[in-house]
Amino acid sequence: MSDAPNDTDHFETLDRDLHRFSYLEAGTQYVARPMVAPGIALAFIVIAGIAAGFFFGQVPMNMIVVAAAVFGAYMALNIGANDVANNMGPAVGANALTMGGAIAIAAVFESAGALIAGGDVVSTISKGIIAPSTVENAEIFIWAMMAALISAALWVNLATWIGAPVSTTHSVVGGVMGAGIAAAGFAAVNWPTMGKIAASWVISPVLGGAIAALFLALIKSRVIYQDDKIAAARRWVPILVGIMAGTFAAYLALKGLKRIIKIDVQTALLIGLAVGVASWLITIPLIRRQARGLENRNKSLKVLFGIPLVISAALLSFAHGANDVANAVGPLAAIVHATEYGSFSAKVSIPLWVMVIGAFGISFGLFLFGPKLIRMVGSQITKLNPMRAYCVALSAAITVIVASWLGLPVSSTHIAVGGVFGVGFFREWHTVKRMRHNSNGVPEERRIAPEERRRRKLVRRSHFMTIVAAWVITVPAAALMSGLVFYILTAIVS
Asked: Which sequence ranges are marked TM in the entry (predicted)?
């Protein structure tokens, strides 16, 4: 009998080798999967640098613009991963939007807000913090803006990596302030402007929380605690949709259409009123149709609040894009202007390609790195349902719109998280109030031990303290880092 291997042995050997290759491919894919998102982000950053080089190929200092575009794209990615996640978290946490739907809505409306209505805040962040008269020349100003951009991007990236919910607005403003002090001393900083911005940091989360609590109080008193909840919802949900649509229309008329036609405040308010009334009338039959056959209980209300929550999430994304694009492209716009014209005293003109970098960078950052933070904000601070999430989103949208209207670079992180805490703390207060005024015997909550009641608090105090600590440390940390980066940059080029 021959000892030569037969065909079966060959196939068995081949199968073993193919299995080894299959295991190797599976292992390679498993290892490479975490690198997909950073790889796409790196490709976007490189494309942004190439685009800057293309537009500024004939400018003597074009490499500075290329570097600024790279760090501007890098900063925009971090904003998308951080701030946009905070804004879309409530809708996802309330199960009113899927993760894919939230990302799609945010990407479209973030880009639209940045490209249509992002101009005024960019002017504030780029040239309102440092007084131009205190800086020696355009080159020093350029390096100061570069240091601010680099330090802000690095700080937000570091904070996101360790899971600290910091404000990108704080990072950029702190970076600009630190670079200005390093470049020309404390006199370089426009302290009245900084005071105005700092006041908005305190006012915005308080205002966001207060508005969210007021809307939740309205919904509880006019809808949830009514005998016929569905009838009350048919009456009030269209009104709430009209409020959102009217606010959005007034803002768009005043800010977004100014490049086409000049509209004063009174006309914008009239436009908002007209759109709000029209939206209210259109929504009435939609909600009435949706309410047919629903049972008279709180669970049914979640269905009726799906539409206003989706609309408010889109509105918030637009307002956030208009306001926070400044964080990514404000210093970049200042560098481009100073490089092209050799001065920084004139009003900064924002090129379209600069705005595109900010808009697309925010969208890419959300798509690549946002889902994890969206889940954290939506479920770990306090429990949200569609009614509560609607209150958070609407209050945040109104607050961001007012801030952008006034040209204040407020933090959407502060506003959104403030709204979440506002809803949670209002629920705690309202629960205690109902317990005290309950005259029909001792409620169940009163029979729970005090330690257990503290454990069941509706707002997690550990998150509250962590967020406040992160807010406090961001500005000085970004300013210190920016000053060090400025000294390093000037030492390298000198």
From this structure: 35-56, 63-81, 140-160, 197-216, 236-254, 260-282, 303-322, 350-369, 389-406, 412-429, 464-489
Using DSSP, how many helices (H) and how many strands (E) does the chain show?
17, 0
Give the chain's end-to-end CA distance (angstroms, integer).
86
Alpha-carbon torsion 281, 285, 287, 291, what sign?
positive
Determine the Cα–Cα distance for residues 224 and 42; give it in Å rounded to an integer: 49
| Inter-helix orientation angle 461-493/412-436, to 10° | 170
Rounded to an integer, what distance in angstroms lies between the CA atom of residue 336 and that of residue 340?
6
Type of residue at 141: F
Question: Coil, helix or strand for 189?
Answer: strand
Range with the poorest average pLDDT among 57-66, 213-222, 357-366:
57-66
Distance, C-alpha 111 to centroid of its chain: 12
Domain ranges of the chain: 36-228+296-493
Percent of the chain with pLDDT over 70: 74
Q: Which amino acid, residue 480?
A: L
By the 8 A CB rule, do 245 and 308 touch?
A: no
| H/E stretch holding 492 | helix 461-493
Note the helical H segments in 220-305.
229-251, 265-291, 298-304
Cβ count near 301 (within 10 Å): 22
pLDDT digits (tens, 9 = 90+) for 239-249: 988 888 887 78
Which amino acid would we find at residue 25? E
CA distance 395 to 314: 13
28-86 pLDDT, tens digit per residue, is: 444 445 677 788 888 888 988 888 877 765 555 578 888 888 998 998 888 888 777 77
